[in-house]
């Protein structure tokens, strides 16, 4: 059997994140998160003295051991663990609502004195006419057939599936065509542009032509500042969100090279990006990487949002534009301690005890290799409410490593099954062995919820272990390796005060 083809067929339904121990629902074992009731709170009431002459040291931590079921082999190999064991602070933080003044400061940091204009969905008569002509062209049967066949040339659809896809596209495009035809007669020849007012409006203010945005309780909780601008003939938009509600909160500022009004066709915008060489055909150099890292830090400094560091800088290939760009992640620093870079939450609407209802504080930049801004996102702004303890005791290096091994040994093979709920799964797809390689340990702050509070959090001393793992069937064939790249991914996050697991993915 061709294992690669078989695995490729099922990976589209595999949710990798659920395999990590940090993503599991809280077990009942006393040593894990949330079950050391009162230990952490008790620690906050007592301070520890610094260890005499104990500076940060570099330790080598290498060990191999197995899970209690004997099916998971854990290899830890990091010879650059920097740790002092000295007391560290604990901070209490809460979501920060972005003010209009802060939004304008961030805009100025990114775009200088470039004028910003209030976003509007309203189109001129000539813009609508262009869209009508465009949708008339792309909704023709022969055009749709050709585009579907070209998109699926490498993996052709069946005749039945192709027919369904063609019908769906034609219906969608003709619906848009009719929509623009209804707007044409009442459209204005010209629309006066208005400079950005730097005022938050309900989201429905910007999308008045969309009935679903009107009298919608979910939408009404969102306030925005949305502006557009043009830089060197490239369209940009600037998007600020405040959502202060009881179910979940969102505070974010974004900017991107994007035709927000959709004045250009998809093909026209694609050609604009290509003609401006925003994505390089050549792989980015180390010198270019250093340049964009410094550029990102310079932008952040002008934003007046505290101290930050670049946690990750990746030169990535974007197949759509057939070129390379940089993606940078920045994380904040509090009390001289970095907040560990963890994967951003994929959802914040859960209602379980361990679910978070607010995104992690993080900044993302996308740059062209020569340093032109492609995208910016600042999410999860925080305010420090108090410092409950400036000097809380943390585990020693030996205590930390013992706690790590105890927790990782609790993993079992059932957590790594591709078809965990299917008793009839083929034997060749049943995971019989996992080899986990941990190559990095980072000491820093990690966020955890304050007990019985919905939107207050602690930033606590933590250790994050990152690496990869490979799953094998009983014949020794590799089923899957995560991550598929050579980048390490978080596997376990521990609170260094009480040893509890921090559920970073929830």
Q: How would you describe what is shown here?
A:
With 506 residues, this protein is an alpha+beta fold. It contains eleven helices and 18 strands. The chain has helices spanning 3-11, 39-43, 100-111, 125-138, 141-151, 159-184, 203-206, 217-220, 266-275, 286-303, 397-408, and strands at 57-66, 72-83, 88-95, 117-118, 201-202, 222-231, 234-244, 249-257, 307-318, 323-334, 337-338, 362-367, 373-379, 382-392, 433-449, 457-472, 478-482, 489-495. Strand 6 (222-231) and strand 7 (234-244) form a beta hairpin. Helix 5 packs across helix 6. The longest helix has 26 residues, at 159-184. The radius of gyration is 26 Å and the shape is globular. It starts with a helix and ends in an 11-residue tail after the last strand. Mean pLDDT is 87; it is low at 1-36.
């Amino acid at each position: 059997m061709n294992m690669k083809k078989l695995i490729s067929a099922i990976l589209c339904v595999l949710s990798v994140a659920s395999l990590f121990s940090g993503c599991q629902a809280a077990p009942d074992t006393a040593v894990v998160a949330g079950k050391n009731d009162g230990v952490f709170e008790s620690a906050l009431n007592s301070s520890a003295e610094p260890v005499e002459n104990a500076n940060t040291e570099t330790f080598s931590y290498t060990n191999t051991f197995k899970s209690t079921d004997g099916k998971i082999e854990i290899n830890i190999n990091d010879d650059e663990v920097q740790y002092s064991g000295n007391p560290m602070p604990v901070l209490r933080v809460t979501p920060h609502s972005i003010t209009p003044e802060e939004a304008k400061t961030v805009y100025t940091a990114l775009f200088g004195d470039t004028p910003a204009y209030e976003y509007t969905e309203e189109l001129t008569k000539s813009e609508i006419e262009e869209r009508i002509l465009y949708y008339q062209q792309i909704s023709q049967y022969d055009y749709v057939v050709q585009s579907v066949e070209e998109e699926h040339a490498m993996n052709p659809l069946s005749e039945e599936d192709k027919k369904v896809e063609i019908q769906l596209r034609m219906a969608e495009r003709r619906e848009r065509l009719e929509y623009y035809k209804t707007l044409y007669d009442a459209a204005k020849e010209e629309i006066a542009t208005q400079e950005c007012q730097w005022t938050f409006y309900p989201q429905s203010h910007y999308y008045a032509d969309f009935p679903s945005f009107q009298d919608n309780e979910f939408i009404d909780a969102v306030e925005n500042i949305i502006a557009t601008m043009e830089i060197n003939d490239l369209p940009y938009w600037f998007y600020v969100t405040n959502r202060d509600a009881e179910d979940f909160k969102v505070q974010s500022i974004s900017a991107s090279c994007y035709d927000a009004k959709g004045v250009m066709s998809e093909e026209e915008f694609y050609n604009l990006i290509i003609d401006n060489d925003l994505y390089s055909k050549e792989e980015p150099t180390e010198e270019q990487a250093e340049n964009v890292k410094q550029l990102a830090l310079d932008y952040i400094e002008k934003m007046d949002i505290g101290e930050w560091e670049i946690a990750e800088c990746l030169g990535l290939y974007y197949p759509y534009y057939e070129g390379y760009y940089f993606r940078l992640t920045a994380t904040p620093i509090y009390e001289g301690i970095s907040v560990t870079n963890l994967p951003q939450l994929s959802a914040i609407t859960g209602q379980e005890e361990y679910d978070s209802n607010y995104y992690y504080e993080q900044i993302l930049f996308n740059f062209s290799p020569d340093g032109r801004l492609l995208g910016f996102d600042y999410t999860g702004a925080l305010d420090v409410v108090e410092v409950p303890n400036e000097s809380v005791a943390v585990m020693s290096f030996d205590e930390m490593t013992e706690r790590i091994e105890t927790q990782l040994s609790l993993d079992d093979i059932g957590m790594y099954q591709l078809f965990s709920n299917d008793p009839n799964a083929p034997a060749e797809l049943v995971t019989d062995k996992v080899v986990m390689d941990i190559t990095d340990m980072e000491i820093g702050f990690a966020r955890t919820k304050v007990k019985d509070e919905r939107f207050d959090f602690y930033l606590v001393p933590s250790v994050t272990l990152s690496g990869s793992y490979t799953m094998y069937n009983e014949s020794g064939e590799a089923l899957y390796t995560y991550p598929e790249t050579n980048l390490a991914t978080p596997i376990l996050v521990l609170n260094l005060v009480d040893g509890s697991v921090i559920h970073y993915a929830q």
